[in-house]
Design a protein that fits this description.
- With 267 residues, this protein is an alpha/beta fold.
- The chain has a single domain, classed as Alpha-Beta Barrel (TIM Barrel), CATH 3.20.20.140.
- Helix content is 39%, strand content 12%.
- An 8-stranded parallel β-sheet has the order 1-2-3-4-5-6-7-8.
- The longest helix has 15 residues.
- The protein is globular and about 45 Å long.
- The model has no long low-confidence stretch (mean pLDDT 95).
Length: 267
């Protein structure tokens, strides 16, 4: 049975040209025959059809100069009046970071940010991103951060060092570690336990769900968010949801993972 509220906190509803380029990369280098269409309108329809009642759409910039235009597209495609899609923003460290943030979080009023260290070729603690961490520490917008630098989407234990340093320096920054840092999941959970503002999403890595058991997350149920990576995933929403259901959590803990925590981070 589907929950009353299922928030997918990790989707990529992007401009069609960019979405098709990303899909082409996946098909050439990672995996073919992904089950979800890459075009934003069609992917959104699939999310609705599988019971998702709201989603975060997360853009990312692979080079300097593209974040501003992408952020503006997000705001136009998914305005604040859209009850379904929470439009995200991004920035690249080679940008004029304060200016991009002023536009994205001020003028455009985007509510969540995405950093993709692999695609952008940087670390979370890059000094050029200090204006971002300072700003979100004060304003509260969550930052979904893909930490690993591998083209396959995986994260090594050592790669958690930069985000750990960010959490130490900016303890109020609401960081959501994408894919629960898989396969460095144990180290990611350890960071969640010692850093009050750090969260993680349960988004699969292409073909693989995050390797977690019920015993692993005891005490962390309020710091985990459901995510799918639609449209760039081989794991269906139903299968990702079945993993959470298999833990047989108390109703309030399951509700937090499946939507409550995502909503709270935007409150």
């Amino acid at each position: 049975m589907l929950p009353v509220m299922l928030v997918d906190a990790h989707t990529h509803l992007l401009p069609d040209r960019l979405a098709r380029a990303i899909r082409g990369y996946f098909e050439q280098h990672i995996v073919r025959d992904l089950p979800y269409p890459c075009e934003a309108t069609r992917a959104r329809e699939c999310l609705r059809a599988e019971g998702v009642t709201a989603c975060w759409s997360l853009p990312y910039a692979h080079r300097a100069g593209m974040a501003s235009g992408l952020n503006r597209w997000m705001a136009e495609a998914f305005p604040a009046s859209d009850p379904y899609v929470v439009a995200g923003a991004t920035v690249h460290p080679e940008d004029d970071v304060p200016r991009v943030l002023d536009e994205a979080l001020g003028e455009l009023r985007l509510r969540v940010l995405k950093l993709h260290c692999a695609v952008g070729g940087f670390d979370a603690d890059d000094p050029r991103l200090d204006p971002l961490w300072k700003r979100v520490s004060e304003s509260g917008q969550p930052v979904v951060a893909h930490i690993g630098r591998s083209a396959l989407g995986i994260t090594g234990v050592a790669e958690l060092g930069p985000v750990s340093r960010v959490a130490e320096r900016w303890p109020a920054a609401r960081i959501v570690i994408a894919h629960c840092g898989a396969p460095a999941v144990a180290r990611t959970l350890a960071l969640l336990r010692r850093a009050p503002a750090v969260h993680a999403d349960l988004t699969p890595v292409v073909r693989d769900v995050v390797p977690l058991a019920r015993r692993d997350i005891v005490g962390l149920e309020g710091k985990l968010l459901f995510g799918s990576d639609v449209p760039n995933t081989a794991v269906t929403i139903a299968d990702a949801l079945a993993v959470v259901r298999s833990w047989e959590l108390p109703a309030e803990h399951e509700a937090a993972i499946l939507g409550g925590t995502a909503r709270a981070l935007l409150a």
